[in-house]
């Protein structure tokens, strides 16, 4: 019998799950293996102070998802550390796509999102022009044309066009950009947004979140989407917030999962904590961050969470609301290289061994 977070105790029932790690005893020794359910949708919040393993854990989850059929993982990567998932030349590489300059199709954003993105009031002047343009057209050129065709007061027209030009200058909208169909192809897609400012980074996240949610609601998909967002406070603080909240509050019914990782749980809106059915907490020490989690602390957690904080990188306490259980665990080692690593001799040696092995295999 093994324990599957999000499902409970399970015999080998053949349902999809990923190997998350092992139980951790008080003396630090490792116990039985621990798994994470991939059969149904989940909202998972991964928290922890810098350097204690959030991105690493996100990578472990991404690896497990990549090796599971029936799911389609997308990673929003603001630090540029997940490319190694799909480009690792070692022995355990994963089939997937890394997009260094990700662009979304303009109509992945609905008219309300366009106004929010550009900071415009949809009820007035330039905002209502952008709203109508987004309703009618699916390209930025088309939207600009739509604005000029309205015979609106020239001040409003100029303001709307300037805002659309600003959006164009971000380089994240393209009619040939990624759409839900591409993201749902099954292989992992890593969207490296590390070169972008906060607004375009948020635009990509909102576009992707909305596209995945809309595709799932339309009921035409044959894989369940998983959206993994690192440094999630950047997106909960920006225009992507609404798309993430939609997935958190309404995503599970159509089958969309969200895994958000942040070192600042205090910057995550309450809904981001209360609607997560699984909390994976690495070490946290800031009072504000512990308070944010304590406010949502379930009654079945005996004693304060602060007293159960792990001490070492990779160690976690997991609160599983679907089974109302709490677990002390050690997250397993990554199979692919962790992009956030400082260079180390052992990591280089591992990569060299792998490339020698694969060369020998092809000789
Ligand atoms: N489960 C694990 N097994 C082994 N090593 C780990 C594990 N988790 C983390 N580490 C080690 O801790 C380091 C820091 O992890 P990681 O980069 O994920 O931190 P982080 O919390 O995301 O920090 P940041 O907020 O700075 O991105 C890793 O490079 C790795 O060496």
UniProtKB/TrEMBL annotation:
<dbReference type="InterPro" id="IPR027417">
    <property type="entry name" value="P-loop_NTPase"/>
</dbReference>
<dbReference type="GO" id="GO:0043139">
    <property type="term" value="F:5'-3' DNA helicase activity"/>
</dbReference>
<feature type="compositionally biased region" description="Polar residues">
    <location>
        <begin position="352"/>
        <end position="363"/>
    </location>
</feature>
<feature type="region of interest" description="Disordered">
    <location>
        <begin position="325"/>
        <end position="363"/>
    </location>
</feature>
<dbReference type="InterPro" id="IPR008571">
    <property type="entry name" value="HerA-like"/>
</dbReference>
<dbReference type="GO" id="GO:0043138">
    <property type="term" value="F:3'-5' DNA helicase activity"/>
</dbReference>
<protein>
    <recommendedName>
        <fullName>Helicase HerA central domain-containing protein</fullName>
    </recommendedName>
</protein>
<comment type="similarity">
    <text>Belongs to the HerA family.</text>
</comment>
<feature type="domain" description="Helicase HerA central">
    <location>
        <begin position="31"/>
        <end position="120"/>
    </location>
</feature>
<dbReference type="Pfam" id="PF01935">
    <property type="entry name" value="DUF87"/>
</dbReference>
<dbReference type="InterPro" id="IPR002789">
    <property type="entry name" value="HerA_central"/>
</dbReference>
